[in-house]
Every structure is written in structure tokens, then in C-alpha cells.
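Risk register update: the risk of archive-format incompatibility is retired. Evidence:
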Amino acid sequence: MAVFDNINMTTSNGVAPGVVDYYERTLIENAKPDMVHARDAQKRNLPEHNGKHVQFRRMIPYDAAIEPLKEGITPAGQEIRQTAFTAMVKPYGKHVEMTDELNFYQLDNMHQEVAKLLSDQAVLSLDTICRDALCAGMNVQYAGGKTARSAITAADKLTPAEIKKAVRTLRRNNCKPFEDGFYHAIVHPDAIYDLTADEQWIDVAKYQDKEKIERYELGTLYKVKFFESTNAMVYENKMYLYGDTASLTIASCDEVTRTVVVNQEISADDARALTGQMVTVNAGGTAHLMCVERVDYLNKKITFRWMPEGGVSGTIEPEGTASGANVFGTLIYGENAFGDIELGGNGGNVKVIINPPGSSGAADPLEQRGTIAWKVKGYCAVILQDSFLVRIEHGATV
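Archived output:
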């Protein structure tokens, strides 16, 4: 049995296997082009019978060979060097309840519409998970010469100079472009509005045959090929951490466990709202952007995903800018920068589960309710080489 198989899943009595296959095939076909953030990921199949973890590989390049060969002597062979990255996969899914007033045994318009909505939700969910993983990288370039996200204004736009600087960073790090000869970038429509206004921008129609244009491909600049996504990262300016709480005061810090204790009381609902947030920790005039990993509300303890050397003090505040402007995160990267889990392939990762009315036994005694759902048994995304991915944080014309 696979790691994430649901042993309590009810089979779809009365629903032809071809119907389920049709929905699953539709979901996968929709996911491949629409998951813009995962399009260039190093792919791994869901590990069957191998725990909840998957292993990615980063190959380590060889140094220059400058020692001349000696006559008649064969030098020792080189070892294949690689760094293994282990990531935890987690299941995801959602369902819709439908009544017996709708016919579960036909491919009617309602079911097709619901299946399309669920397919769109699955794609958006997985693309967002991948996006958030990629935007957790530490190789950040702030536009306009700024040194922190909080200092960025709408005037600090994405410009050709910023793109050129990011390309220089990738080349310095020996990051290879893709087989098409370009680095790739994922950009928000608001950001591309500013970039395409520059005369150096080359529209896709000017360099690519119509048949070869990839979905969401827009154009190039300084050997970077841009792909547009409305789901590209936008760091919205926030006034509150949760509810009407604008800040928390740190009482003590444990650098080893990456935890702080705060003075204020935190409710269970507030703890859920705070978990996973990016927050600004202000200490003596220095602002650290940190991610909340978990919250122990009973002990007023907050654990961060990372913490600067020496720990932190001061206050925990919502991420935001002094100008009140939203900040956009444009990703520029090369080969083998990150990896994710394959949706198709071995393991049957994507499942569409159709339970018609009457399939739930005593839980549905009058055969009135059924469900249609999507489920991905395991998914994750991980940065493999932080120096191969640059995140440019910038403002935009609104």
C-alpha cells in the first residue's frame, strides 16, 4: 500500500472507471501547463513503500584539471560527487458534496463544471505550494538599491538594469541556462507592465515561431525568458499580524531552538492565523524577515523556521513597507535550481474520487448525498541550489 493511500476510501459504485479516468486525465493535463512555478523543476516520482520523504540530487561539478598527464601512468579516477536533499511529501485535496437531485451516473454539464472547478483548485493549490517554497530562498535582490523589503516603494520597479544584475549573479555562481539558451523568469502581470515599456524588451513574436511559443511565454531580456503568472508572489502590505494585533513584544529568545516567548496572550485561533506567516522582527533598528513555523499559544512561544546568529529581540510585526506599497517577487533561475513531485508517472499520484449517493452506507441512509473530490497523495517542492535562483523584490505601477 502506498504511503498516502486512504484505506477508508469508498470506491465509486455505479460510476464507470472511464469517468474517473477522464477526470484524472483532465486534471493532469490542466496542471502541466498551468503550474508555471513547477514547469522547470527537477521531477521525482512519489516514493512508494519508502516513507514520507523523497530524495533530490544536486551534482557537484569537478574542478579544473591543470595537472599534466605523466607518460604511461593513468591517474586515479574521479568520484561522482553529489549532494542529496531530502524533503517531506504531504497529501492535499478537497471535495464537493452533491445531492441525489443531480445524476451521478452521467457526464452531465454540472459534473463537468464541478470537475473543472476542482481541477483549477488543485492546480492553483499545488502551484502556490511550489511558489512559496521557491520564494523562501535567501538569494534576494532588492530593487532600487534598497536593503530590505520594508524600504521598497512603488517607484522601485523591475527594470532591465535589475534583470542584468540578476543574470550577473547567476553567471558568477556558474549557473547554467536551460537548453533553449535562456535563464527563465516568473513574473507578475503588474511587473511585466513596467518591464515591457522599455525599448530593450524583445516580444516573443519577434524571436519565436508561432508553433513554438510556450504557454504564458512573453518575451526576453538579457538572455532571460519571461513567463507570466497571476499567481506570482505578491507580498501584500499588512497592518496587523492577526485580528487587530499590530505587534508582539519578545520577552526572551532561545537561538538554539529558534524560539521566542512573547509578553502577550495568544488564542488558539490567533496561533493558527500566525503560523506560516512571514513577519518582520525589529531589533535595535535592524529588521529581520522571518517565517513562523509553529505557535505554542499555551506557553506564548513562537518557533521560527530560521533565526539570525545571535538571536532576536524587540518586536514582531507584520511584513510590510514604510510606503504602504505591495512588493512583488520575480524569480529568475537556471537549470537544477529546484525540484518537485511528479503528478503523473509511477505511483498514481493524482486521484479523482467520485462517491455517488448510496455509497456511504449508514452515513447516507436515504441515498441523498454524494461527493466528487481531487486528491494528490503526496507533493512538495524544494530549492536544490539557492545560488541558482534569484528573487528580485520590487514595486510596480498600479
